[in-house]
Amino acid sequence: MATRISIEKNKTRRRLSAKYAAKRAALKKLIMDRDTPAEERFRAVVKLAEMPRNGAKIRIRNRCALTGRARGYHRKFGLSRLMLRELASKGQIPGVTKASW
């Protein structure tokens, strides 16, 4: 199981990412627009750099909802491969059955 601090840190990153998403998108749009003057684009780059790093969406790590495991994550279920297999074998995930042929 992942440490509590890593799970909490990831929750904080999700919260900050949602908070700053619109502002970051506006600044990036301004930076990428080649029609705006270079000085204005530079100011936008500086503002973007001053924003918290954990507000970037790329810093979020997908983790298992039950254990907090970061590796072997399935997006469709929000679980790690271990929990997915265990719950599917018990029949606790609707529509998922163990393959047999």
In short:
With 101 residues, this protein is mainly alpha-helical. 51% of the residues lie in helices and 4% in strands. The protein is built from three helices and two strands, in the order ααββα.
Descriptive report:
With 101 residues, the chain is mainly alpha-helical. The chain has 2 domains: 1-61; 62-101, 30s Ribosomal Protein S14, Chain N, CATH 4.10.830. 51% of the residues lie in helices and 4% in strands. The protein has 3 helices and 2 strands. It has helices at 4-32, 38-50, 81-90; strands at 73-74, 79-80. Strands 1-2 form a two-stranded antiparallel sheet. Helix 1 packs antiparallel against helix 2 (38-50). The radius of gyration is 20 Å and the shape is elongated. The mean pLDDT is 94.
Strand content: under 5%
Residues in helix, %: 40-55%
Distance between the termini: 33 Å
Low-pLDDT runs: none
Order of helices and strands: HHEEH
- Helical/strand content category: mainly alpha
Q: How big is the Rg?
A: 20 Å
Oligomerization: single chain
- Quick one: overall form? elongated
Q: What is the total domain count?
A: 2
Query: What profile does the largest beta sheet have?
Result: 2 strands, antiparallel
